[in-house]
Amino acid sequence: MTDQLVEAASSHAGSVAPNRSRNPAKSRTARKSRNAARPKVWATGLVAGAAWLAAAAYADFVPDADDFAYTQYFAVGLAAIGAALIVLSLCGPVTGLPLKGLRYWGPWLVVIPIGLFAWEAVTAKLELLPRPFFVPPQSLIEVYLDDWPKLGLSTVASLKLLAWGYGIGAAVGVTLGVAIGWWRTAGYWAHPVLRFIGPLPATAWLPVAFFLFPSSWSASVFLLALATGFPVTILTWSGIASVNKDYYDIARTLGASQRFLVLKVAIPAALPHVFVGLFMGLGTSFAVLVVAEMLGVKAGLGWYLQWAQGWAAYANMYAALIVMALMCSGLVTLLFKIRDHLLSWQKELVRW
């Protein structure tokens, strides 16, 4: 019995021994693969961090040609961004963070501080560009820190006006486009009106709108809805009309009702065209928003732009333009996100 146990133990040891000899090799291979997969030091990030720090040093140590109150804030902001980039670049191999998004924008992170450096040099330091038309970057910081209540309220007012006008125009446009594309009677009555009124710019209705509506705000909502509704209607109509007829035949053979054909077949198949119309409507609504706020509404970014221009406050004007650009770009990005979510099979066809 003892001999049998010894033989069994020796045979088990013999079967395990080769595994022990293979484990170190496997571990070395795994270690190599982990080391290969581990991100390396981000060289572009180091260059970008150095560029931001150099711009900060230039803004802080070179004296201004005039008295600018927020030069120190500007330099500290640049230095903070530069230090963060250097830390992230060096900590990548240690923490294992891939920083894919940041690496993609690496060249831009190098170019932006160079542009800020040049802007600071020709305005605040050397005053090569005439004032007050050209302002240094620290003047924009002054506007954002000191005038943020008025600028914030103007942004909220613009967003509220845009939401009402664009929402009403998009809802009416999609409904009207589906009706025209699906029912011939609706197309018979609506098509001539669209051909007559649609090509007219929405801003051409300004005198009529401000006369007909009880307030300038409601008139502006009407103009925004008009600017949004026309492209949405045309593109939705085109999408409904271009749906493959086989879809309807297959659905009818399965007993689909008229309501099912419209809601479950026609509208989903026309969604790519609908979103093109929504994008076009959003672009035209931005233009009408600024014009309407400049001429009638007493709040909003368009009103703020006109107010800043009237007082020759060009720093406020540039600050409002930057906020407006961020707002418009953010809304388009949000619409693209919704589109990619609903039309996942077309996610890579159109990119923003």
Write the layout of secondary structure elements.
Elements: H1 2-37, H2 43-61, H3 71-95, H4 100-104, H5 106-125, H6 137-146, H7 148-182, H8 184-197, H9 206-212, H10 216-241, H11 245-253, H12 258-295, H13 301-310, H14 314-342
Helix pairs in contact: 2-3, 2-5, 6-14, 7-8, 7-10, 7-12, 7-13, 9-10, 10-12, 12-13, 12-14, 13-14
- SS summary, helix count: 14
The CATH topology of the largest domain is given as MetI-like fold
The H/E string reads HHHHHHHHHHHHHH
Structural class: mainly alpha
Tell me the major beta sheet.
none
Query: In CATH's first tier, which class of the largest domain applies?
Result: Mainly Alpha
Mean pLDDT: 86
Percent of residues in helices: over 70%
Count of structural domains? 2
Unreliable spans: 12-18
The CATH architecture designation of the largest domain is Orthogonal Bundle
Measured on Cα atoms, how large is the radius of gyration? 31 Å
Could you state the CATH homologous superfamily of the largest domain? MetI-like
Basic shape:
flat
Number of strands: 0
Strand content: under 5%
Distance between the termini: 78 Å
Gist?
This protein has helices spanning 2-37, 43-61, 71-95, 100-104, 106-125, 137-146, 148-182, 184-197, 206-212, 216-241, 245-253, 258-295, 301-310, 314-342. It is mainly alpha-helical and 352 residues long. The chain folds into two domains: 43-125, no CATH class; 137-345, MetI-like (MetI-like fold, Orthogonal Bundle).
